[in-house]
């Protein structure tokens, strides 16, 4: 089996039976190794986390926490396995750590409402979350520059204006852009600005969510060490994004389902594998204005 869908088709009860049997397949080997190592343990009465007595002990603890009013329902951003369609523990993530994995990022223009030809230039390392964009974040104390492009480029036209952290203007220079600074702002001055989203919001929003969405916010998590100083925020898909979203009441927009595939919110993307297909020509053409 290669994924959760096959488990569901096979039957969870039958899968559990086979899984339980596989747990003790190498028990004799482990116990022999432990004896050779001199590990002092009661192997005849060892517990296993799949034992009913162990599972029920955890339930008992949770029941006591609930009785004391210490449990609450909320949202948290966790490491996740789309193959298993389950959250991952920190141990599982560490076991499969890989270094030097390609991590391309993208730059996206978000037009400012009420200002023709002016866009906030945002940056993200997770372009598959762009259909779930709910806000943009800027650094409260940073200086932002509104620059006018002096010539046409692959992703802008002469006279178009982009807003970027002043300390990150090298990002434009590296793209051989000729520009002129026409105005500067403190990050806090951008707070509350509205911008045009990349895609229409398909899910129904409450009045408070509608007022909060597609707005610029200040947040201490915005770094000026890379990107543009304008951060794309998708609360469902990141720890800092979620913290900001919960603080200001953003909706948890969804672009990827529990099996790691793009949702049908955008018809042309429906079924694409979010991470693997992110930089396919089809997804790039649809997603990225710059």
Radius of gyration of CA atoms, rounded to a whole number = 25 Å
The termini sit apart by 40 Å
Superfamily at the CATH H level of the largest domain? Valyl/Leucyl/Isoleucyl-tRNA synthetase, editing domain
CATH architecture grouping of the largest domain: Alpha-Beta Complex
Description of the molecule:
The structure is a single chain. The chain is of the alpha+beta class. It has two domains: 57 residues, no CATH class; 182 residues, Isoleucyl-tRNA Synthetase, domain 2. The chain is built from ten helices and ten strands. The strands form three sheets. It has a five-stranded mixed sheet with strand order 3-4-7-6-8. A three-stranded mixed sheet has the order 9-5-10. A two-stranded antiparallel ribbon has the order 1-2. The longest helix is centred in the first third of the chain and has 16 residues. The chain is elongated, with a radius of gyration of 25 Å.
Question: Keywords, please?
Answer:
290 residues; alpha+beta; Isoleucyl-tRNA Synthetase, domain 2; 2 domains; five-stranded mixed beta sheet; three-stranded mixed beta sheet; 10 helices; 10 strands; 29% helix; elongated; disordered C terminus
Q: What's this entry about, in short?
A:
The chain is an alpha+beta fold. Helix content is 29%, strand content 17%. The chain has ten helices and ten strands.
């Amino acid at each position: 089996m290669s994924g959760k869908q096959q488990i569901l088709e096979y039957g969870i009860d039958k899968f559990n039976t086979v899984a339980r049997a596989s747990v003790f397949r190498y028990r004799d080997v482990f116990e022999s190794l432990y004896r050779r190592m001199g590990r002092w343990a009661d192997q005849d009465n060892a517990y296993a986390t799949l034992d009913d007595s162990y599972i029920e002990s955890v339930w008992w603890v949770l029941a006591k926490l609930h009785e004391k009013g210490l449990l609450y329902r909320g949202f948290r951003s966790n490491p996740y396995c789309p193959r298993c369609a389950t959250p991952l523990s920190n141990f599982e993530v560490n076991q499969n750590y890989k270094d030097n994995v390609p991590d391309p990022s993208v730059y996206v223009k978000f037009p400012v409402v009420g200002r023709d030809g002016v866009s906030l230039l945002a940056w993200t390392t997770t372009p598959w979350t762009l259909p779930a964009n709910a806000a943009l974040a800027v650094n409260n104390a940073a200086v932002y520059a509104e620059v006018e492009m002096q010539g046409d480029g692959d992703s802008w036209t002469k006279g178009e204006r982009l807003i970027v952290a002043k300390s990150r203007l090298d990002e434009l220079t590296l793209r051989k852009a000729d520009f002129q600074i026409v105005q500067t702002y403190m990050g806090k001055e951008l707070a509350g600005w509205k911008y045009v989203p990349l895609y229409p919001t398909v899910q129904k929003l409450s009045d408070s969510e509608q007022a909060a969405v597609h707005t610029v916010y200040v947040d201490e998590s915005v770094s000026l060490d890379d990107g543009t100083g304008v951060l794309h925020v998708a609360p469902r898909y990141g720890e800092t994004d979620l913290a900001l979203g919960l603080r200001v009441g953003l909706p948890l927009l969804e672009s990827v389902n529990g099996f790691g595939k793009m949702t049908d919110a955008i018809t042309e993307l429906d079924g694409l594998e979010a991470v693997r297909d992110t930089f396919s020509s089809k997804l790039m053409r649809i997603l990225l204005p710059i």
